[in-house]
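Field log, afternoon session.

UNIT: design team B
ACTIVITY: writing a sequence onto a fixed backbone
BACKBONE:
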């Protein structure tokens, strides 16, 4: 959505407050819109007692991303601002990508399964060839049309086997996820449509 200076759309984003200890229970949630110029997404958590939590970010086509290791201090009923953009280390596992001067969430997890892989790319491709438009998960750039620009972003992230890194994922999970993405990519290239719909 970031075009190097602003966001193409004031898009809605959801945040969950998660306990900092396993099993990282969900304590509260809030929804807001990200300002396209200031990149602020002010959240107010009304239910959670003040304390230290992970902030988990969910967006229609961004990769699920959590705040940095250790959790953040959140006060009940008070605006919470957390900046992912100024440092890679503000995302759990450093799982963000530098675009211009901003650290951005990875884009392209169209089906919200925690990784950007060929399944997402095929969805974007299908909407691109149909000239789909509107508020769609496959519109990665946020310009309300699905075209080759969206496809390239998704494709690049899929070839890098981008997948979520959270307190719930172990290094072994990440390796497994990358292997699964690789197997799906290989099957797709071999024309095995039972693994990946065409
Ligand atoms: Ca996906
Ligand atoms: Ca687009």
């Amino acid at each position: 959505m970031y075009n190097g200076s602003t966001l193409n759309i004031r898009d809605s984003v959801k945040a969950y407050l998660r306990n900092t200890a396993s099993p990282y229970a969900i304590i509260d949630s809030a929804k807001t819109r990200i300002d396209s110029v200031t990149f602020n997404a002010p959240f107010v958590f009304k239910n959670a007692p003040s304390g230290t939590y992970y902030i988990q970010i969910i967006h229609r086509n961004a990769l699920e991303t959590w705040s940095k290791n250790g959790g953040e201090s959140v006060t009940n009923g008070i605006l919470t601002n957390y900046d992912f953009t100024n440092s890679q280390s503000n995302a759990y596992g450093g799982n963000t990508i530098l675009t211009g001067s901003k650290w951005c969430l990875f884009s392209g997890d169209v089906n919200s399964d925690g990784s950007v892989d060929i399944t997402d790319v095929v969805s974007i491709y299908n909407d691109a060839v149909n000239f789909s438009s509107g508020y769609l998960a496959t519109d990665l750039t946020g310009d309300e049309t699905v075209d080759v620009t969206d496809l390239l972003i998704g494709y690049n992230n899929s070839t890098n086997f981008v997948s979520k890194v959270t307190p719930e994922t172990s290094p072994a999970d990440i390796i497994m996820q990358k292997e699964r993405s690789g197997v799906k990519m290989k099957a797709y290239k071999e024309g095995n449509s039972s693994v990946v719909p065409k």
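LOG NOTE: The chain has a mean pLDDT of 92.
NEXT ACTIVITY: expression trials, pending approval
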